[in-house]
Amino acid sequence: MAKKFNTAAVCIPEKHYMVNIEERLESIKGLVDEGKYFTINRARQYGKTTTLRALSRYLREEYFVVLMDFQKFSAVEFENENNFSVSFLNSFLRAFKANASAMTEKVRAVADQLSESSFKRNERFTMKNLFEGLSDICLESDRPLVLLIDEVDSASNNQVFLDFLSQLRAYYIDRDEQPTFQSVILAGVYDVKNLRYKLRPEEEHKLNSPWNIAADFELDMSLPREGIEGMLREYEADYHTGMDVEAMADRIYQDTSGYPFLVSRLCQLIDEKVSIQAEFGTKTAAWTKDGFLLAENLLLTEKNTLFESMVGKLRNYPALNSILKDILFTGRPIPYNPDSAELDMASMFGFIRNQNGTVAIANRIFETRLYNLYLFEEEFRNQEIYKKSLLSKNQFVVDGHLNMKRILEKFAGHFHELYGDRGETFLEEDGRAYFLLYLRPIINGVGNYYIEARTRSMTRTDLIVDYCGEQFVIEMKIWRGDEYNSRGEQQLASYLDDYGQKKGYLISFNFNKKKEIGVKEIVVGDKLLIEAVV
């Protein structure tokens, strides 16, 4: 059976196209060999479960590996110490005995005795009994034991789980005297070293986590460009589409920054959805720049579990929602500070990354999705500029081509008509948002846009628009005088070379009352610049 791209649960190498993660597994094994206890905490659908499954197989030549999943534990299992201890033991032994062929008779006897003890003691089987039994198994085993627990944060807001961590910590500290696990790896979204995001307000006295023994886990789990290229070459060997593998891998990486779900979903959409569209019809036609752009547009407009989870976090954490809006719309540089609760949360949920000491949205897909979400909210949706765009949108596309000059002309007039008497603060913080609001209904369903991160600032932002195979580079900037404006024109002309463009567009938000509203053409070298002053 042919392999598929997979975005539903764990990826299986025999069934799914995957990026080779052996180098990642080798790095994690190094921590295991050193006897480290640590947490793999990454955002939703970031490949944690796939990594744990692969790691479990990778370690089994040297270790007994027990892989558990707290998602399989119901609320009843966490009601009290006894319920948890019995349930944990049963799940542990079931996973442990999967290695039965490699067990010695002595280890099997200890495991059977522990199981019988828990059954006999019933309601008196405690956490202490559980860990003493686990220690006995570690003592008799001829291989070190490694414990992997997935979805660990599903249990992190109750006392039983804290007691469980306390026992792991106690045995870790006394590991020279009491046999215990070689390594323990807990995987989830929330870092259990810092439980405050999961605890209810009345439980703030539990903020100090007993998991302070954990080593730092700093391994980058995003998919590298070279890894994506390798996955596509495997696909190409099966289907012979003739795609430019290197260029396609670069496009995917540029827009996803290697976020595993986004990488797989884009590939899946090209393979399964775009290839059957009337304008493509084959895999060969789909694995092109145009096919990629359509897949990206499908991704940006679909409802999936990752985006639903993101929106849920924004609704549950108003401070997180506020700081993301600030990043997107004001252009003010925000220093990356790991001690900021809001930034720590945004990073933990996968919204942001540290870009040379400054906060940046994690990837272009997230950025565009967030822009689309915020621009549809009531504060923007009811704006007159949006209604003006809807009424005028039919005149902006001629024979399938986007007339960007006409868009700038109409936007300049409409913006001045509606907001011409507003002050500098409005222009700086809201002007660029209103151009995106104006643009969105024009390209909606056909084109994509993203903000170029390297030029984002309070004074300058570059917008890249893709529409039916054509690309438009638009600089949005705040007017700071003729000399500054001239430098901006030179910068844009130079920047166009990066995109192989001869024509560029500028929108200058000018708060000078003597400004001349309108659009003009400027020639800079071999480049034509269309500038709108609003």
Notes on the protein architecture:
With 534 residues, this protein is of the alpha/beta class. The protein folds into three domains: 22-206, P-loop containing nucleotide triphosphate hydrolases (Rossmann fold, 3-Layer(aba) Sandwich), CATH 3.40.50; 225-302; 394-534, no CATH class. The chain is built from 20 helices and 14 strands. The protein has a six-stranded mixed sheet. It has a four-stranded parallel sheet with strand order 1-4-3-2. Strands 5-6 form a two-stranded antiparallel sheet. Helix 17 packs antiparallel against helix 18. It is elongated, with a radius of gyration of 28 Å.
Instruction: Name the CATH superfamily classification of the largest domain.
Output: P-loop containing nucleotide triphosphate hydrolases
Oligomer: single chain
Biggest beta sheet attributes: 6 strands, mixed
What is the CATH topology assignment of the largest domain?
Rossmann fold
- How would the global form be characterised? elongated
Tally of discrete structural domains: 3
Please compute the radius of gyration using only Cα atoms.
28 Å
- The helix content, as a percent range, equals 40-55%
Stretches where pLDDT is under 50 for at least 5 consecutive residues are 196-206
Notable characteristics:
534 residues, alpha/beta, six-stranded mixed beta sheet, four-stranded parallel beta sheet
Q: In terms of topology, how is this protein built?
A:
Blueprint: H1 22-33, E1 37-41, H2 48-59, E2 64-69, H3 81-96, H4 105-121, H5 127-140, E3 145-150, H6 159-173, E4 183-188, H7 225-239, H8 245-256, H9 260-272, H10 283-286, H11 289-301, H12 305-316, H13 318-329, H14 341-348, E5 352-355, E6 358-361, H15 364-375, H16 378-381, H17 384-392, E7 397-398, E8 401-402, H18 404-419, H19 424-443, E9 448-452, E10 460-467, E11 470-478, H20 482-498, E12 503-509, E13 518-524, E14 527-533
Parallel strand pairs: 1-4, 2-3, 3-4, 11-12, 12-14
Antiparallel strand pairs: 5-6, 7-8, 9-10, 10-11, 13-14
Helix pairs in contact: 3-4, 4-5, 7-8, 9-11, 12-13, 13-14, 17-18, 17-19
